[in-house]
TrEMBL record:
PANTHER family: FMN_FAD EXPORTER YEEO-RELATED (PTHR43298:SF2), MULTIDRUG RESISTANCE PROTEIN NORM-RELATED (PTHR43298). It is a multi-pass membrane protein. It is found in: Cell membrane. This is Multidrug-efflux transporter. One of its GO terms (molecular function) is xenobiotic transmembrane transporter activity. Pfam families: MatE. It comes from Parabacteroides distasonis CL09T03C24. The chain crosses the membrane at residues 12-33, 53-76, 96-117, 129-150, 162-182, 194-217, 244-269, 275-300, 320-339, 351-369, 389-409, 415-437. The keyword ATP-binding does not apply. One of its GO terms (biological process) is monoatomic ion transport.
């Protein structure tokens, strides 16, 4: 057993070297969200509930957009394996335009939701808080999508530390801005939840500008800049980016949509349940981000080895990713088990909300292994540009199984918020089984 694990040492090292900077950068964003939740929750429970609704809806679309931007990863990895740096610069240019177009479509859909907020069954007292925060968050999506292209570029060429520092800088500025604008410090007005939205908007603009500065000023990026300047936006690149990007976007959207729909269903139960839901989701997002960082590293390596036509290495990298994910699951579940009694009190002093959070944490621990495995497997397939299968698997797992099960258990069987939350482990279990089979068949078909 030890010898088998030791045989994966080089693969663990490769993934950790790539994954840790990505994880740190993403954890910075999550810590910002955590700080948002704590500061808004301390300001008022009603604002925390409003933030829960808006963040779940907006983040579902941001995740879809981010999924679309993942179209760059397999294209960069394959060209990097062949040392085609100028071609990579052209892909970045086409990706920026494709991302901007996609963003406009997402914003149009969100605008429709914004205009119909009254029809979504949320508590009436939250709507005056929801509307302005929703509007500011909606506009900032454009900057998220543009810096996502640069982020995929630097991570795809194995420079994840750049992405890490840009994200950490932006997130630090966001936390400072939150403190000033939420509570009205340094002579600024006390804006509460709206202040958190404005701070996030400004920090996203700054992160985009930092990525642009890095791309324009680094001397070793000269071949990429040459490709960016000389390669035109063209139909072939556009079609390729869309053929990879949209299935990933829809897959990510289906998964995020599950969280969005469950947030809406939890909102039907009341403001306290919605506040507890936001706290539990914020906690779960920390572990999700670690899995996502590992998954991104797996996608970068599998895309590279596909370009090198080394399918044995594709298999080894995927298995190593699953091993590392399992280690993280053990750490996360142990930490949650040891701290579960007081976690909710970090976010709010409302004892009822804390009691609800405590009922959700066992379910959160239950679905960690499924969440980890499905992210690693999906990213392995993403690196291979096998994206349509991921999309259909997600549709079956989340919209056919998870959401109906959550409604059935939550309302038909009267399990309340715990029943709604059971949608997550059920959906992840189905996803892991199907993605695992697909990944196995992909490698097997090329090794035979």
């Amino acid at each position: 057993m030890y010898n088998r694990i030791a045989g994966y040492k080089q693969y663990y090292k490769s993934l950790v070297m790539l994954g840790v900077p990505i994880i740190i950068g993403q954890l910075g964003a999550i810590i910002t969200g955590l700080a948002d939740t704590i500061m808004v929750g301390q300001h008022s429970t009603e604002e925390l509930a409003a933030a829960s609704f808006v963040n779940n809806v907006i983040n579902a679309f941001i995740i879809m957009g981010t999924g679309f931007s993942y179209n760059l990863t397999p294209l960069i990895g394959q060209n990097l394996a062949m040392n085609k740096k100028i071609v990579i610069g052209g892909w970045l240019k086409n990706s920026l335009v494709a991302n901007m177009t996609t963003t406009l479509l997402l914003i149009a859909v969100l605008l429709g939701i914004y205009l119909n907020l009254d029809s979504l069954g949320q508590p009436e007292e939250l709507l005056p808080l929801i509307r302005p925060y929703f509007a500011v968050s909606l506009v900032s999506i454009l900057f998220v999508m543009l810096y996502n292209s640069f982020r995929q570029f630097v991570e795809g060429i194995a420079n994840p530390s750049i992405s890490m520092w840009v994200l950490l800088t932006g997130n630090l500025l966001n936390i400072i801005g939150n403190y000033i604008l939420i509570y009205g410090k340094c002579g600024m007005p006390e804006l509460g939840l709206l202040g958190a939205g404005i701070s996030t908007f400004i920090s996203r603009i700054i992160m985009l500008l930092l990525f642009i500065a890095v791309f324009m000023l680094r001397t070793d990026y000269k071949p990429y800049r040459k490709g960016f300047t000389h390669i035109r936006i063209n139909k072939q690149s556009w079609r390729r980016l869309n053929s990879i990007g949209w299935p990933i976007s829809l897959q990510q959207g289906l998964e995020a949509g599950t969280f969005c729909v469950t947030a809406i269903m939890v909102g039907w139960l009341g403001s306290l349940e919605l506040a507890a839901h936001q706290i539990a989701i914020t906690i779960s997002t920390i572990s999700f981000t670690i899995y996502l960082g590992l998954g991104a590293a797996v996608a970068i390596r599998t895309s590279y080895y596909k370009g090198a036509n080394d399918w044995y290495m594709v298999h080894k990298i995927t298995i190593a990713g699953l091993h590392l994910g399992l280690i993280v699951v053990c750490i996360v579940c142990t930490t949650l088990f040891m701290t579960q009694s007081g976690l909710g009190l970090i976010f709010t002093d409302n004892l009822h909300v804390n009691a609800i959070v405590k009922t959700l944490l066992p379910i959160l621990m239950l679905y960690q292994i499924g969440d980890s495995a499905q992210i690693i497997l999906a990213n392995s397939l993403r690196g291979l540009a096998d994206v349509k299968a991921i999309m259909w698997i997600s549709f079956l797992a989340y919209f056919i199984i998870a959401i109906p099960a959550g409604y059935l258990l939550g309302f038909t069987f009267h399990w309340g918020i715990a029943g709604i939350w059971m949608a997550y482990p059920l959906g992840f279990l189905c996803s892991v089984c199907l993605l695992g089979y697909r990944a196995k068949m992909q490698v097997k078909s090329h090794l035979v």
